């Protein structure tokens, strides 16, 4: 068992509860953690034996392009897509942050974290 992480991904996207947020957009950060068996890839040095980081990034980017009202919904979609693309992974953890959320005061970011294990456990 091992972990693959893509940390610090940044996107400009059009998410938010308020219509105005979906029009003007904002900067978002995403951290993605995948738990899977990395032993075969470690022994073989073969990309086909592991999770391709480029594919993971593409999945996150595609989900970031589709507007969502809630960070929770966005994170849920990312997990669904990752688990669909890679049926052999054991679990996915995603953190989605909105930078400078419109709260009426200083807040560097609002962030959610979701975890799902294979077999439906959440």
From TrEMBL:
Catalytic activity: 7,8-dihydroneopterin = 6-hydroxymethyl-7,8-dihydropterin + glycolaldehyde
Keywords, sorted A to Z: Folate biosynthesis, Lyase
Highest taxon, organism lineage: Bacteria
Broad class of enzyme this protein falls into: lyase
UniProt entry tagged with the keyword Secreted: no
Any one GO MF annotation of this record: dihydroneopterin aldolase activity
Domain Dihydroneopterin aldolase/epimerase: 4-116
Family of this protein: Belongs to the DHNA family.
Record protein name field: 7,8-dihydroneopterin aldolase
Gene source species: Hymenobacter lutimineralis
